[in-house]
Amino acid sequence: QAKIDKKVAERVAYARKPKSKALPLLTLSLIAIGVAVTRIYADTHDGVEWTTYVAVALAITGVGLVIGTFWGYGGPLIFLGLVLGLTLAIGSALPNGRIGAQQPNPATAAAVDARYTHGVGLLELDLTDVSDPTELLGRTIVLDNGIGQTKVIIPEGLNVEIDSDLKLGQINLFDRSVDGTDNLLKTPATGTGEKLTIKIEQNVGNVEVVRS
Fold first, then answer.
1. For 28-81, what is each residue's pLDDT tens digit?
2. Cβ neighbours of residue 47 closer than 8 Å, sequence gap 6 or more
3. What is the DSSP letter of 98?
4. Fewest CB atoms within 10 A around its CB: which of 110, 133, 154, 195?
């Protein structure tokens, strides 16, 4: 019993002993260096997605936690690792890591991409300035957004079919709307002959298609 009490007392004393912050501070310093190196790489290689920075920080934190099992005190790194892991999981579920506004306004049909992807924010495709809109007929354009708003502006008279899929939020296609969860809304082409097909896929937010 005396041996057990002694061991318990030693563990209590260890738990109460002030923990060194050397390992967490060292890990944070290495994270800062890793993020800086990633930024330099991004500047010389046409950029990287923001999730890359999170992945670098998470990898360094993981190394810090492993070292903490043998030396030093890595307790604060557990919370940091959880936050970074959750952030990376959310970011990985998005179409891409782009944040902010993406508002392509092509001047010709040839300049219109077959697919536009966005992570968080506004994805707005304005087709009203396309000088040869009939060249869009027979094509399919896909817009894939994670969280935020997707808006498409269609020129008057263009024969178009809209097929939208929104997991959570509201869809407004011309004069039709639906909201809630697992929303599917389709607007068939009004004219005969060739048509432009626009497919919109989004996780959370608002989808809107208007004519101008």
1. 899 899 889 988 888 887 667 777 888 898 899 888 888 887 776 777 888 888
2. none
3. -
4. 110
- Cβ contact 189:160 at 8 Å: yes
pLDDT of amino acid 92: 67
Could you tell me if 169 and 202 are in contact, meaning their C-beta atoms sit under 8 angstroms apart?
yes
Q: Give the 3-state DSSP-derived string for 160-192, with helices as H, strands as E and coil as C.
A: EEEEEEEEEEEEEECCEEEEEEEEEEEECCCCC
Q: Which helix (H) or strand (E) holds 93?
A: helix 75-93
- 22-44 and 50-68 helices, crossing angle to 10°: 150
Cβ–Cβ under 8 Å, residues 125 and 104: yes
The Cα 118–Cα 57 span in angstroms is 23
Continuous segment of H or E residues that includes residue 135: none
